[in-house]
């Protein structure tokens, strides 16, 4: 009986305390949704006042490249490259077609792949050697069943008995060409596309600098490789050493691990001050605005990479190759 009485007394005491303090608590404006819930639960009101941090990193490589190109064009602290255009006509009887320098402006020429999935095959611009006796071009093939693309690089000899304009205009892609390199065609890699674009001929006409772009269907453009084809040896050299040098420099000197970011190189052309070296620019997506990783150069052997500047892109490159350009009357 004593135990039962004590239990009833405790229950009555608790009810009295709650009844006594409840009005007073309400008088102080106590609110579960305002005072307790925001600290324990993700309510709509809490989410509205405390939005998650914005992730400014690009979601795809295509998005990153758009932002990187904007930064390269508009960055005040990083001067944009300024190269004079050379539109000089060379031995042109037809006023509607001109022979112009190919790598003009430097590093910007690329293959237009907008209709690749429809046509399944696209040819690049034919680039003529400095001596006007050879032409190189590439053909990109698309395979819809595997969502892959591969590229074949061709070299043609031109008929030197004709004028410069005629030998180029009459060159036929099905006559006298030979394959000198393939990428993305010897192995099946689902959803991977590889394209080859000519950067420029070397000044002596013995080598061809190229950029190999590798993209992956879900992520877009993945990375760019710098290649050099040597006509004297008939071999292609992958100058991946320059990418390794850039990674090593930023890791050791600035504690920036580029493996954690989207970054890439932009080959510009053959160095005008040293015709055996190729200049490349590099950018990384390290935040809202892509970061300039410097102007670099590497010799065609791939033996030594060199940092040229961390702030300037104003370097002169040669323009050795030529191509035909159609002029349309307005």
What is the structural class?
alpha+beta
The ordered string of helix (H) and strand (E) elements is HHHHEHEEEEHEEEEEHEEEEE
Q: What is the subunit organization of this protein? A: single chain
Any low-confidence stretches, pLDDT <50, length ≥5? 1-6, 14-30, 75-81
Please tell me how large the radius of gyration is: 32 Å
Counted by DSSP, the helix tally is 7
Distance between the termini: 110 Å
What overall geometry do the principal axes of the alpha carbons give?
globular
Q: Helical proportion? A: 10-25%
Strand content: 25-35%
Total strand segments: 15
Mean pLDDT metric: 79
Could you explain the architecture of this structure?
The longest helix has 26 residues. The protein has 330 residues and is of the alpha+beta class. The protein contains 7 helices and 15 strands. The N terminus is likely disordered. The strands form 4 sheets. Strands 2, 3, 4, 5 and 6 form a 5-stranded antiparallel β-sheet that branches. Strand 9 and strand 10 form a beta hairpin. The protein has one domain.
């Amino acid at each position: 009986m004593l135990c039962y009485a004590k239990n009833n007394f405790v229950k009555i005491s608790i009810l009295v305390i709650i009844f006594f303090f409840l009005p007073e608590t309400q008088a102080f404006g106590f609110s579960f949704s305002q005072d307790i819930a925001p600290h324990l639960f993700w309510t709509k009101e809490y989410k509205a006042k405390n939005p998650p941090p914005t992730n400014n990193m690009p979601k795809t490589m295509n998005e990153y490249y758009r932002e990187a190109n904007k930064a390269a064009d508009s960055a005040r602290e990083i001067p944009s490259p300024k190269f004079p255009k050379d539109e000089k006509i060379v031995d042109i009887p037809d006023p509607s077609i001109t022979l112009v320098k190919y790598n003009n402006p430097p590093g910007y020429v690329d293959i237009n792949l907008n209709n690749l999935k429809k046509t399944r095959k696209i040819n690049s611009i034919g680039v003529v050697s400095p001596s006007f006796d050879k032409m190189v071009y590439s053909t990109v093939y698309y395979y819809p069943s595997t969502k892959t693309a591969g590229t074949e690089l061709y070299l043609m000899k031109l008929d030197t008995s004709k004028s410069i304009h005629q030998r180029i205009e009459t060159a036929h892609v099905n006559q006298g060409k030979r394959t000198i390199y393939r990428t993305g065609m010897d192995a099946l890699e689902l959803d991977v596309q590889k394209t080859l674009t000519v950067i420029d001929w070397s000044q002596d006409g013995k080598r061809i600098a190229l950029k190999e772009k590798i993209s992956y269907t879900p992520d877009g453009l993945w990375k760019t490789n710098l290649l050099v084809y040597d006509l004297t040896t008939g071999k292609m050299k992958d100058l991946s050493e320059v990418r390794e040098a850039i990674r090593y420099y930023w890791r050791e000197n600035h504690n920036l691990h580029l493996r954690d970011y989207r970054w890439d190189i932009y080959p510009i052309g053959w160095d005008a001050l040293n015709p055996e070296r190729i200049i490349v620019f590099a950018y990384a997506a390290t935040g809202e605005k892509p970061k300039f990783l410097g102007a670099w150069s590497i010799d065609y052997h791939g033996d030594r990479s060199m940092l040229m500047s961390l702030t300037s892109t104003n370097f002169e490159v040669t323009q050795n190759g030529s191509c035909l350009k159609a002029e349309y009357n307005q």
